[in-house]
Amino acid sequence: MAEVVLDGITKRYGDTLALKDVSMTVPDGAFVVLLGPTGAGKTTTLRMVSGLDVPEGGDVRIGGQSMRGLSPAQRNVAMVFQQYSLYPHLTVRENLAFPLKSPLLRTPQAQIDMKVAEVAEVLQIAHKLDNKATALSGGEMQRVSIGRALVRRPSVYLMDEPLSSLDAKLRADLRIELKRIQATSGATLLYVTHDQIEAMTMATHVGVLDRGRLVQFGTPREIYEDP
Ligand code: ADP
Ligand code: ADP
């Protein structure tokens, strides 16, 4: 159960009011696409949920639990950034396995191998498992970044334009895969994009931000039929 609630979130960076009293209830298992012009507060919204940054006012709750004081590691969330953030000296296999190697998790090696193989298959990267990350194309690196989030099977995914560096064919394939992952895993997704096709094909809900305010939130049908 991972309903995500933003309750009156305010965030300031110096003189910039990045978020102003943003409240949003994201139902368990929803695929929320956040839209809005550059600087609207989309990335900041994800950072509030991930715990990478702390709100000035308001609270974030996941599955009914307040995230106040919890570090990113203590939240059951995985974030995918627009810019791939891999360990360059490790292979694809090692990069994908990394999140599962934490001593706290004590995941058996056989299970790690299985999860890595499964994710590599889904992301069409299985043939590159033994290549160093530095030997990959940009699109391949971004798929591995997405894979590093998927192996953890979090209850909440936070994705910041994860497909924007990919070519059109791969973007279309991965739209279908991400939608399938959301539908079968029951995970909740908050997903930032500028791509209207992604919004319309993947979203169960759309949130529109403008200058730090949430100006619309609803199903794609509600948003697009009621401009
Ligand atoms: P978006 O993702 O919609 O483009 P952001 O959430 O990145 O918007 O940024 C919202 C506002 O906050 C922008 O005006 C941006 O310049 C500002 N901002 C974001 N992060 C920082 C930061 N670390 N320091 C200063 N200003 C920031
Ligand atoms: P996007 O529009 O793709 O969200 P941004 O360029 O707004 O990307 O932000 C990229 C990163 O830079 C974010 O981590 C954000 O917090 C940070 N950032 C954005 N604006 C500023 C700023 N004015 N000063 C410092 N950091 C910023």
UniProtKB/TrEMBL annotation:
Keywords: ATP-binding, Hydrolase, Nucleotide-binding, RNA-binding, Transport. Transmembrane segments: none annotated. It is an enzyme of class 3 (hydrolase). Residues 4-227 form the ABC transporter domain. One of its GO terms (molecular function) is ATP binding. Its EC number is 3.6.3.19. One of its GO terms (cellular component) is ATP-binding cassette (ABC) transporter complex, substrate-binding subunit-containing. Belongs to the ABC transporter superfamily. This is Maltose/maltodextrin import ATP-binding protein MalK. The chain holds residues 1 to 227 of 331 of the full protein.
